[in-house]
Amino acid sequence: MKKIPDRLLSTIVVILTLTVLSSISRAQHVNPKCCDYPARPDAVKIQFFLEACAVPGESERGMMPYFDCQSYVLGIIDGYRLLKSSSPKDRQICLPESITTREVLELIWKSYPNWEIAEHRQAAEVILEVIRKEFQCDGK
C-alpha cells in the first residue's frame, strides 16, 4: 500500500477541519434578521396559522418573518409533552409518539370543515383542542 505524503495528508486534515468548523460556527449564531417577533399571548391566530400551512414558507400578509407551520405544530406538541405531567389527569392528552403535522391539520379539518373557526382564536388553543378530543387518555 502506498503511503500518502505528509504534506498532502496535512492539507486534507486542514481542509476537513475548516469545513467542519465553518459548519459548526454558522450553527452557533442567530441570523440577525430573524426572531424579533414578540411572543404575545395573541400572536398566532388560527387563520394566520392555516394560511401559513396552506402555503409553506410564505404568508400573504407577511406578519411573521420565518414563520413555519410544521415547526409551530411540532413546538406545541413538544412543549405539551414536557408539561403533560403538570396537567390534571382528566385533561391529559395521550399523543401517539410519531404524530405528524399533516395528522394535526386533518384533525382540525375534521372538527372544523371548511376551516370555519372564529378568527379571534389562537392557533395553539385550536391545535390542543382537536388533539385532546382525539387522543384523550381515558384514565391511562
Total helical elements: 5
Nearest-integer average pLDDT: 77
Measured by DSSP, the beta-strand proportion falls in under 5%
The gyration radius over C-alpha positions equals 22 Å
CATH topology: 10k-s Protein, Hypothetical Protein A, Chain A
- The second-level CATH architecture is Orthogonal Bundle
Instruction: Return the structural class.
Output: mainly alpha
N to C succession of SSEs: HHHHH
Low-confidence stretches: 20-25
Q: Write down the CATH class.
A: Mainly Alpha
Molecular shape: extended
How far is the first residue's CA from the last residue's CA? 63 Å
Count all strands and give the number. 0
What proportion of the residues is helical, as a percent range?
40-55%
How would a crystallographer describe the biggest sheet?
Answer: none
Give the number of domains.
1
Describe this structure in words.
It is a single chain. By secondary structure, this protein is mostly helical. The chain has a single domain (33-134), classed as 10k-s Protein, Hypothetical Protein A, Chain A, CATH 1.10.890. Helices cover 49% and strands 0% of the residues. The chain has five helices and no strands. It has helices at 6-27, 46-54, 69-83, 101-111, 123-134. Helix 4 packs across helix 5. Mean pLDDT is 77; it is low at 20-25.
